[in-house]
Structure formats: C-alpha cells, structure tokens
Amino acid sequence: MLVEDNEVNRRLAEFLLRSQGYEVTEAASAEQAFAMLATERPDLIVMDIQLPDMDGLEVTRRLKEDPLLRNIPVVAVTSFAMTGDYEKAIAAGCIGYITKPIDKTTFIGEIASHLVEQ
User: Fold this and answer.
1) pTM over 0.85
2) 57-95 burial by CB neighbour count: b if 16+ within 10 A, else e?
3) Measured in whole angstroms, how far is the alpha carbon of residue 79 from the centre of its chain?
C-alpha cells in the first residue's frame, strides 16, 4: 500500500513498484488508508510523513496500536529530512526510511529488503 498525498510522487512510486512486479493500492490520505485497511492487509505500507489530515508518523503509531494491523511493516518516505527524523520514524514503528527526491535504486532496494517471497 502506498500512502502519499502528492499525485506526482504517488505516480512515480507506483510506477517504480509496479515495474518490479508489486501490486499497489493507493491512498491519498490517512483517512483513505484506514478505510482501505478495514478490508485489506497489504504486505507493506509505504508511508509519506507529510499528509494533509494526519502526519504519517501518527498514522504509523495508530497502526502499531491495532492488533490486526501492527505486523504490517511500514517504510517512511519524506522530503523534509532533518537530523533526528530517522529516529522519530523508527520510534513511531517504521522499519525503513527513504528521503525524497526518490532515488529509484535506493527506493526499490529498501522496499525489497522488507518483503519476503510468499
């Protein structure tokens, strides 16, 4: 699942993921993500940190509090990388951290490292 409010960034990430054979569902907000998670269980969530209705770290904290969702790995993506942001993402429950602008090799490598063949 890709949670990203910026359409251009969402299209790029979706393209990169699909080019590697991943199925991608998209949400443009925290509200949409939670609605989709009521019926879906993705193998991984790529979470933008800057979302309009609730920031991605808060979304991740709420996911990790839910027994039905807590085991879904979350990889944070942000364009506002500051000192300490990686640590904040990990503390919120993320297992990975990617900065924008997205480097396609780094992005795909980070995602692949958290998914196992099923």
Assistant:
1) yes
2) bebbbbbbeeeebeebbbbbbbeeeeeebbeebeebbbe
3) 13
Tokens 């992005």 sit at which residue? 107
- Kind of pairing, strands 74-78 and 96-99? parallel
> Which residues are registered as beta bridge partners of 96?
75
Closest Cα to residue 5, out of 77, 85, 65, 80?
A: 77
Is the separation of the CB atoms in 3 and 46 below 8 Å? yes
pLDDT per position as a tens digit, 69-82: 999 999 999 987 67
| Residue 48 DSSP label | E
116 Cβ neighbours under 8 A, 6+ residues apart: none
